[in-house]
Amino acid sequence: METASKPDNETILDFKICWKLYKANFKTYLKYSLFIFFIQLIVSLIVNIGVVSLLIGVFKVNPFEIVEILIWVIIPTTVLLYALQGAFYGLAYDIMSTGDEFAEFRGAFRYFRKYYWQYTIITLLTSSPAFIIIINLSSLLDISPYNVETILLNSLGGIFIFILLFLWSLVFMMTFPSITAQGSISRSFKENFKILRRNFKRIFLSFGLNFLLFLMPFYIATLLQFIVFPIADSPLRITLMGIALVFGIISYVIAAPLNTLIATRIYNTQNES
């Protein structure tokens, strides 16, 4: 009986410890989150305004050909953002591996320089298949004719997609702390599946708790926007967009860093489970 309850106890312990560490390092995480946000904003402005305007206004490129050209612009910028986001695990590693349980803002850039290509490759390998599946599934959702049956089907489809995304992320979650700890991509996959086999319930419950508290509200608000958008009046649309935005900020500033702390703690204490 004691063994059966251990993953549940570990989940509470994982969350309590990681929440405490997150609060102690809130300023560091906030600074780095804002840094990535502004990089994304700048990149988006450059791509959507600068590059498109240049192609159409100066080089007289056909608008239908712009998409193909933008792909070659988006790829390197996406690689950069993947690497920057991966460095969150560097902050978590510093927090978990130092006696004072503290990370500095500039520490993220040290891990970025050291493992930028590993973070990028791991993200591409683990995320791309999931997003391809999700995009294909999303295309099956329809808003016309808009009746009770359509609303129900779209709601169930949206929930299924969210659950699929969550489960897929769990399968490869341990690759990131492994990369940060030892640097080898092949070894990170071996360690990932080894830890997953031995600690699946703990991983599922620990990340599931974070998902329910800080990510699910954003997904629900987003789903509600999709459901009511064709029939809702403007005030309701604006309200739902505002709610989704607030929950989106919470998920970005809290859930994402907390995920890295939980993953790193599970990685570091796996042999104790």
Question: What value does the Rg take, in angstroms?
Answer: 21 Å
Distance between the termini: 15 Å
SS strand fraction: under 5%
Class from helix and strand fractions: mainly alpha
Number of helices: 9
**What oligomeric arrangement do these chains adopt?**
single chain
**Fraction of residues in H or I helices:** over 70%
What's the count of strands? 0
Gross morphology is globular
Overall pLDDT level: 80
List SSEs in N-to-C order. Answer: HHHHHHHHH
The number of domains: 1
Instruction: Indicate the low-confidence ranges by residue numbers.
Output: 1-5
**Largest sheet composition:** none
Fold topology:
Layout (H helix, E strand, L loop, with lengths): L1 H23 L1 H32 L5 H24 L1 H10 L9 H32 L9 H24 L3 H8 L2 H44 L5 H35 L5
Keywords: Membrane, Transmembrane, Transmembrane helix
Protein name: Glycerophosphoryl diester phosphodiesterase membrane domain-containing protein
